[in-house]
Amino acid sequence: MSALAKPVARLIDEFSRLPGIGPKTASRLTFFLLRASKEQVDALAEAVRELKAGIVLCRECFNISETPLCSVCADEQRDRSVICVVEEPLDVLAIERTRDYKGLYHVLHGAISPMDGVGPADLRINELVERLRTKPVREVILATNPNMEGDATAMYLARLIQPLGVTTTRLGRGLPVGGDLEYADEMTLARALEGRRQF
Amino acid sequence: MNGHCGLNAAAKVGKVRQARERLYRIEGIVLKRQDFGEADRVLTLLTPDRGKLRAVAKGVRRTTSRKAGHIELFSQSHLLLAKGRTMDVITQAQAVNLFRALHDDLLRFTYASYMAELVDKFLEEEDAQEDVYLLLRGGLEALGETQGESSLALLTRFFELRLLSLVGFQPSLFACANCGQPLDAVDQYFSATAGGALCPACRTSQRDALPLTLNALKVLRFLQTRDYPQVRSLVLSADVHRELERLLLRYLTQVLERHLKSPEFLELVRGVNPVAG
C-alpha cells in the first residue's frame, strides 16, 4: 500500500498526465495545493471545470471561442476577403500579436502526417473549402508551420484551392530576428536568398 | 599543498574524460518526429551503426533554434548526442543532405513518408543494419531525382522488395512457395501467408491465393535481382503497376502484422492531381 493518502496520490497521477509534467513536478504541484488556501484551490478547480463547459469551436473558423462565432469572425472591422490558415489556435494568437493582420482565420487543428495516419479528413479542410465556395474570399494565406508536415499540408491545400480561383500565398521564409547566419541551415538560407528585397 | 594540487588535477582529468564519454558522434536520418514538452521534439533516427534510435532535440520548435533546420523530417545529419538517463539528447546537428526535392513536391513527400514508415515498422530499436540505412538514404535521394507518378511507383516497388530481402522476408519468386517446384512461364498465383508465388497446382493450398500474371511475376523477379540503375528504365503498363502495388502492400501488411498508414494518403494525393500512368 502506498504511504500517500488516496486524494493526494490521485491528484499526482492526474497532474503527471499533463504534457511536460513528470512525477516529481506533479508531486510538487500537489503539495503546493495541499498547503494553499481553500479559495486558491477552489479558483483553480473552477477554472479547470469552466474550461470544458464554456468553450466551443467557432462555427466559421474553428478557433476556440466562448461564443458560437468567435470575436475575430464577429468583428465587423476585419477584412473578410482574406483568410489565414493555421494549424493550431495558438498560431492565431501568435499572428494576432503582430497587430499587422486584419483578415480572418481558419484553424485546421493539426497538419497532414501520412505516417501517423493523419490525413485531410482528420483536419478542418472540407470546412475551409466550403467557406471558400460560399464566401467572397480573394486570398488564402497558408500559414502552416514551416516544416515538412506544414509544407505538405500547404501543398495539399493549394491544389484544392487553385480550381476555386482564389489566390493562395504562403508565409515568407527566411532568417529569424536575433539569429546567427552561421547556424542557419542551407534550406533557410536558400529561401532567404530567394526572397531577398531591395534595401 | 603540492599533493593537494595533484589530487585536484587528477580529479579534473577524470571529469573531462567522463564528459567526453558522455558525448558521442553519430550520423542519422530522421524517420519520425513527435512534439514533446514546451518546445522539444523526440526524434526517431535511423543510424548505420546503432540502428533505430530515439533522441530528444531540445527547443527545436522555436524559430530561433540553431538545430531545427538541420533535423527536419527525412534529413540526413551529423549529430552530437549526450547520453541521458532515459533518452539521449541532441546537442549539435549539421545537415549533410536535407533532400530539398521532397519539400517541394507533395507526391515525393508522400512516397518518402511511406519508405520511412516501412523502415520504422520493420526495424526494432538498436537493431543495427547498415544496408537498410544505405537503402533508405539511396531511396530518398532517388525520389528527389525521379519525376512522374509511374517512375516514383517503380522506385517504391524496388525499395519494398529490397527492404524485404534485407530484413529476411524475401518472397519466393522462382519456386512455388508451397511445393518448391520451379515455376513455369505461365500465369501463377501469389499467397502472402505462403510467402511468395504459388504454382497453379498449389493455388488451393492457401486461402489467400490471388492470381499473379506472368508479366507481373517477371517484373517482380527483375526488381528482386537487379540493381536500381537497371530497374529505373523499365516501363510498365498501368495494369501491372496496380497489380504489383496491391500485391506487395498485401504481402507487407501480412509480414508486418500491422496496418500501414501512409498508403491511404498516397491514394488521396493521386486523386487530387491524377497523373497518367
Task: Report the total helices of chain B.
Answer: 8
The assigned structural class of chain A equals: alpha/beta
Report the strand count of chain A.
6
Oligomer: heterodimer
Q: What is the top-level CATH class of the largest domain in chain A? A: Alpha Beta
Distance between the termini of chain B: 83 Å
The ordered string of helix (H) and strand (E) elements of chain B is HEEEEEHHHEEEHHHH
Can you list the strand order of the major beta sheet of chain B? 1-2-3-5-4
The total count of strands of chain B amounts to 8
The profile of the biggest β sheet of chain A is: 4 strands, parallel
SS class of chain B: alpha+beta
Poorly predicted runs of 5 or more residues of chain B:
1-6
Question: Considering DSSP H and I runs of 4 or more, what fraction of the residues of chain A is helical?
Answer: 40-55%
* Number of structural units classed as domains of chain B: 2
- Tell me the name of the CATH class of the largest domain in chain B: Mainly Alpha
**Mean of the pLDDT scores of chain A?**
91
User: Which two chains share the most extensive interface?
Assistant: A-B, 31 and 36 residues
Termini separation of chain A: 71 Å
| Shape by Cα distribution of chain A | globular
Strand content of chain B: 15-25%
